[in-house]
């Protein structure tokens, strides 16, 4: 058995998500009814998982995500390198992973742990790099190739009807250019100007849309950053908080998720070749854990975004085979796509009080859960960091006190009095 954090873990520990081949990520301790701490609890991360984290504002969702990210970086040497974490940071709060959590030092010591900072690479849209550098935050540029977005997707990004005159021009132009390979915004604008079937007003409107798109700093002729962000043993934080448009954020997340999925399919094929004895094969990228906070932005309960198909169909439903794990967090379970709840094998539920949210969880309550969600959440109480966890692998549910974070938590509410 390989343990991710030996301090505090002894014989009395319980393993969630396991199937006997244990690579353990330390989560915390059982929380008894009298509020005392019981056995230590770890998550077996040897195989991929789909983890859903819910909870109302301020009760520990993003903190718990941070605990899972740290846990992967704390895996023992030789195992850690088999996993890469990619974090979609919608609030710009995870760049603090690099700094040790000195403010919660006392609590961390009570858990017989030590504050610690981790190496995390921060990626931002190439067009926003200078604004981070001005604040002394070290970041790397990220760009999505323009050619990865098809004509229909550009129409959705611009909120243009695909059968309107501008929509028809966009789809014709983009599909012609995509047939030839990579291209720039200048190439698109040249093609629009040269188009012989559209009128001047339509051409000018479409040209303006693409000029605006080039100012977002998200799309470029060639991809930048994607391959660097999935390195064994590393965590890459993709700060999308500077992108105001949810449609553009979704396009970026969808593109990253698609690229990683295809790279993992290749890696999976290489792995099979190695298992068959072929030694000269490039093993490709490691298994990937993708973390998405405020996940309802990308996987809403109604409608689709430019990220929803790839996340639902390839990552959530088929991710185990190519070795892809997904961690999705939301304040509002009732706002997220119902497949997220039904397809997650680990549900971590912090405090919730909205009846709509509790009812949605209740609608997918597994038969092995004795109490309903509402009663279980009541029993858990209002302690920050307490969570009700349902594990479909061991078919059991538990109340857990998540361990404190070792690295600085960037999501704390600002207060007037320090
Ligand atoms: N396991 C824990 N141990 C100790 N303190 C915790 C724990 N989890 C959360 N907290 C405390 O609760 C605060 C709020 O947690 P967090 O920022 O994760 O809330 P959230 O649910 O993500 O809220 P939001 O929806 O506003 O992002 C943290 O800043 C931290 O002080």
TrEMBL record:
Query: What positions does the domain Helicase HerA central occupy?
Result: 36-260
> Entry's Pfam families?
DUF87 (PF01935)
Domain of life according to the entry: Archaea
Q: Which reaction does it catalyse?
A: ATP + H2O = ADP + phosphate + H(+); Couples ATP hydrolysis with the unwinding of duplex DNA by translocating in the 3'-5' direction
- SUPFAM superfamilies named among the record's database cross-references: P-loop containing nucleoside triphosphate hydrolases
Q: Where are the transmembrane segments?
A: none
Q: What GO molecular functions are on record for this protein?
A: 3'-5' DNA helicase activity; 5'-3' DNA helicase activity
What protein family is recorded? Belongs to the HerA family.
The name under which this protein is listed is: Helicase HerA central domain-containing protein
Q: Which organism was this protein described from?
A: Methanolobus profundi
